[in-house]
C-alpha cells in the first residue's frame, strides 16, 4: 500500500532509494522546426543529470518555499515530485514542476498521476495559474504528461529551454 508524505530538506537522502532505470525506445526530436519520434534505444541507468544535481535542486526548491511530496512503500521512497515556488512568466503565473520520478518497479500504478495532482493543489496555494514542465523527450514521458492534460507551453521559458533544448516544454492549466 502506497503512502504519500510531504518531504523536507532532511529527506533529500531518500532520493537515493529511487530506481530510475528505464529503457527509452523512442524520443521526440526536432528537425527543421518539426517534431518527430526517433528510435534511440537508450538505457538510462540513473536520474538524468545525476543524483547530486537532483539533490541540489530538491534542497534549493524547498529552501525557496517550494513543495516536495514522496510516495512510500513501507519505508522505501518509490516516487517523488518537487515544485519550485518562484512564479515566472510575463504575468507571473507559472510555477516549475522541477522533478517527478517513480522507481522502475512501481511505475504504471498511478503514483505519478497522484503526485502531479497533489503538486497542482500546492501550486494553486502558491498563487500559480499554470504548471510549467520541462519534460524529458522520451515518448512515454511526454505521453504521461499529455494524458494528464498538459499542452505545449504557450510561453516558453528560454532559460529553462536552454538547459536542455531536447526537453519538450509543456504547461498545465490549473
Automatic annotation (TrEMBL):
Listed GO molecular functions? acyltransferase activity, transferring groups other than amino-acyl groups
Write down the InterPro entries for this protein, in alphabetical order: Acyl_CoA_acyltransferase (IPR016181), GNAT_dom (IPR000182)
Q: Which UniProt keywords apply?
A: Transferase
**Annotated N-acetyltransferase domain residues:** 26-174
What PROSITE patterns does the entry give? GNAT (PS51186)
Q: List, alphabetically, the Gene3D superfamilies matched.
A: 3.40.630.30
Under which name does UniProt file this protein? Answer: N-acetyltransferase
State the organism's lineage.
Bacteria, Bacillati, Bacillota, Clostridia, Lachnospirales
